[in-house]
Specification:
Number of helices: 8
Largest sheet: 6 strands, mixed
Helix content: 25-40%
Order of helices and strands: EEHEEHEEEEHHHEHEHEEH
Strand order of the largest sheet: 2-3-4-7-8-9
Structural class: alpha/beta
Number of strands: 12
Distance between the termini: 39 Å
Radius of gyration: 20 Å
Shape: globular
Strand content: 25-35%
Number of domains: 2
Length: 261
């Protein structure tokens, strides 16, 4: 079961990082920020959370979103899995999709209106700038506030505008999405059946660490070659390695792993 960890930011990329000299939207790499999370068991730990996802550069992250695995972290003490519910920018340049994604779908209407108004205002303002952050724009300390505050909204809008700056193309409209399910619907609308999410599970009941490690290594190599994501899971005596990716790629993996004879 995926639950939510409490989180406090350790570092969030400031606009000095965001406003780099970019040659094109597709060349801005996906990036993460470091967060300190506290599990229900009381254990605190640091992990990397995506704040910007560019599926032109990292196509496997599209399937992390569709599988509900993006920004899901595991407590190293008790093994509890949780969604680190931080807003992020989702960018798909070939399909001209640029979205600010708030993972919660239950944000009150007043909160939604505040976020949307701030994003529209700042995005339009930043998109018209020649390439440098405006004085008084969001700082690292601003970004440490909750998602509903102007600081993070301004940071997100600035990041979205930076994603397309320098491309010499018309800037795609910035969409504001509440809830990961809504993002998945939007992504799927632009995918063919072969490109939609597929998954395969490799399981063993062997308790041998070496055998489990070998199976995970094989799955990781396949995932790297097929641009998929791979995750491991333990339930009782059963060890499972999941691969998520485009259906055609998952089908190819299934054929490669099928017994010969």
């Amino acid at each position: 079961m995926i639950e939510m960890f409490s989180a406090c930011v350790v570092h969030f990329a400031g606009e000095d990082v965001i406003f780099e000299a970019l040659s094109s939207m597709s060349q801005l790499a996906s990036r993460t920020a470091s967060y300190k999370l506290t599990c229900r068991c009381g254990h605190s730990f640091e992990c990397q959370i995506y704040e910007y996802v560019n599926v032109a550069r990292d196509p496997q992250l599209r399937y992390a979103v569709l599988a509900g695995r993006l920004n899901v972290v595991t407590c190293p003490s008790c093994g509890r899995r949780a969604q680190a519910r931080r807003p992020f920018i989702y960018s798909d340049p070939p399909n001209r999709l640029l979205a600010y994604v708030h993972p919660r779908d239950n944000v009150p209407r007043e909160g939604r209106e505040l976020i949307e108004a701030k994003l529209r205002d700042v995005y339009e303002r930043v998109a018209q700038q020649p390439g440098e952050p405006e004085e008084g724009s969001a700082s690292v300390s601003d970004a440490e506030q909750e998602a509903e505050t102007p600081g993070e909204g301004e940071m997100a809008a600035s990041l979205a505008a930076a994603a397309v700056r320098g491309a010499g193309e018309e800037i795609p409209p910035l969409q504001v999405i509440f809830g990961l399910d809504q993002l998945a619907l939007l992504i799927n609308a632009g995918l063919s059946q072969d490109e939609r999410l597929g998954k395969i599970a490799l399981r063993t009941q062997s308790r041998s660490t070496a055998q489990r490690g070998q199976m995970f290594d094989i799955a990781r190599r396949l995932a790297r070659e097929m641009q998929c994501i791979v995750e491991e899971e333990e339930q009782g005596e059963t060890y499972t390695v999941w691969l998520y990716g485009p259906r055609r790629q998952i089908g190819a993996i299934m054929r490669a792993l099928a017994p010969r004879g």
